[in-house]
Amino acid sequence: MFRARPVVSAVAAAGRRAQPFSTASAPSAWKSTVPLDLEHNSPTPPGQFRIKTFNKISEKGLARFPHASYTVSPDHDVDAHAILLRSHKLQVSEVPWTVRAIARCGAGTNNVPVNEMTAAGIPVFNTPGANANAVKELVIAGLLLGSRDIIGGVNHMKKLGAAGNAREKVEKDKAMFGGREIAGKTVGIIGLGHIGSATARDCASLGMQVVGYDPGMTIQAALKLPRETKLLGGMKAVMDSADYVSLNVPYINKPVAEGGTKGIVNATLLAGMKQDAVILNFARGELVHSADLKAWLDAPGNTGRYVTDFPDDELWDHPRCVVIPHLGASTEEAEDAAAAMAAETVMRFLTTGEVVNSVNFPETILEARDAEKTVRVGVVNENTSGVLSKILGVFGDASLNILQQVNKSRGDVAYNVIDVELKGDANWSNVQKELTMIPEVRSSRFIFGNSPLGGYGYAKNIPNKGYVV
What we know:
By secondary structure, the chain is of the alpha/beta class. It is 27% helix and 20% strand.
């Protein structure tokens, strides 16, 4: 039976491997509970959400979780309600049935099995913009490194110092490492999101002309750009006109012809670039076709440079390439901000059902509700026709009054948040049972908030195991 209590767990009875959701394997029986793994007796007090962490997460960020209602530990292996991670490559087998949400403390989610989590009805969150300032500062540093051979000069001074003649030769040899100023030059920014727009503002303040391109630019992003920014019609137009090009494009692991960005900087785009241009890539190494870029750098008369914080087997030792470790978000401030944003996002989802900054679920924001008189129900289901009417029919059959309902979809998944008028004598256990046994439903969550019932309830369709609550 469903009982309203602060946290209700659904944990696999045997083994710890999660499986993608499939209606083909959906069982027909309802099980009111699945026993905890016998090898693991959770020390967590009832009524607390359990947050599983991978990697070293900023303590300042994790401090956002109130101790009274959350426990945060790397040891919540089989009963976690949410997962926070940074660079750890998450395996499906590491996600227990209890998990409602996963958040990465960073912008990308290529280390999370997003497709499998979507199939299991689990939203995956990231933290866009949290590390924007840190990456932007590194881009500016790269721009300066590409303007003058500072690294070559440093290495030369070390050789002179080792030979004992640094004072004698330092002034004579400095001409070997001359360069140019960036003021008055044109910087082309491809991708004008958080990092791109911040880069544009700082470059403009340094006296540079700014041109850019972003086919998906929002009004909000446009308002953040310097007034003098000139928007061009494509990547080639930007690369042909710029002295410096900053890549801020998301990596999509498909060929360009199929709508991806793998190797999007190729011979065609490089052909029209100025011979002394500098390419700055602090987005993803895979955006650049390495062989094509090497051919461009080695072309007769070319003095251009490539600055990146991604390793490259073909370019790492090229004399006009500056390759540094992946330091974009490696600042204390960025790690604090990303962890704090991840914590806030997860708490918002767990306690209100709202979705923001998800890479696989639709953004879902609702109007405020009376938490003492309302039950909020979140339902994750396959995005197919007719499912919504089945879901609403469950509430109608139970004579429950719907006060507010939002239905959003993204790809194959649909997410419904429904505010229902609190009815003390309602058979909430049966309502959840009927919702979760709809074949296309993946999971259901009941948020009783400040009502007399209090707490949260969770039920999930587990392939080949049953419906649990």
